[in-house]
Amino acid sequence: MLLFTHPFGFLENRENQARILEKWREEIPVSAFASRFKFFHVYIANLPGMNALLFRKGLPRRTGKDGSEWVMAESARRIKQREYEIEQGRNMEKSDFLQLCMDARLGGKPLTQAQKHAHAIMFLTAGSDTTGSGLGSTLRFLITQPDKLQRLRGEIETAEQAGLLSKPIKYEEARQHLPYLAACIKESLRLNPPGVGFFARVTGKDGTIINGQYIPPHTEITTAALVIHRDPGVFSPDPDLFRPERWLDKDKAAEMDPAIFTFGMGPRSCLGKDIAHMELYKVIAELIRRFDFKLENAGEFVIAGGIAYNKGFTVKVTLRK
Description:
This protein is mainly alpha-helical. The chain has 15 helices and ten strands.
């Protein structure tokens, strides 16, 4: 909805539309591996027949009927539809991300068809399953630990009784009046970061010194959120435990914050992190506010290539009175 205003139909049809998630999770490990090693993706991946071997049916195309291929075809269709609406004067000033692409100018010229399509695909793939993973992990931690869930629900009810929350909850309200919600989300993303790939950097012509160790010029250096998020030197005495309360101590939180790598760091950090936070704050608060949950299967946190997600996590949901 953020991209095209109109959703793909997952909830309306009550199904994994066009097997998008299945296919995406099948393809991403190979893509992540190929993109990490220059020799592989420059030389090996371009050998005759290699794409078909790696991706079964080859790299995704715009003509497919499921998975990434369906997403590419549907994105192209919606871009053409929006262009037609604009030509016919029927655009109604839509305020989604696609409209930003339509209005954007480079050197005074509109984006090309290829640029619009590339931005749309990036928006879809970069922030969909990852945000869903963060949402699933937070709910999974809370539902499997009823005392944490009850504390969060109490915080939401107290704020609601004080007239501090709208219906639905606004992002600003959640950030300002629900500190335990913020702590739960932060702790969940610490233990189960959706992006588990390596975010590499290359040292400059003079090399660099990190923690007293000299790194030669043009050397690729990297780290992983899964490692630094459980550093005993920062998160002791219980780095592997889901304990949101650790973030409620402002002084302690200030010491831990520099070790959080969920969205990367510096000028190359995730461009969509504010949108991801908005979705997590609003959706989790509303779900806890409106529904009761009965755990059926805790499932597991699965790491595959450069992404991670919750597999087999199922609950029975009932509307709260």
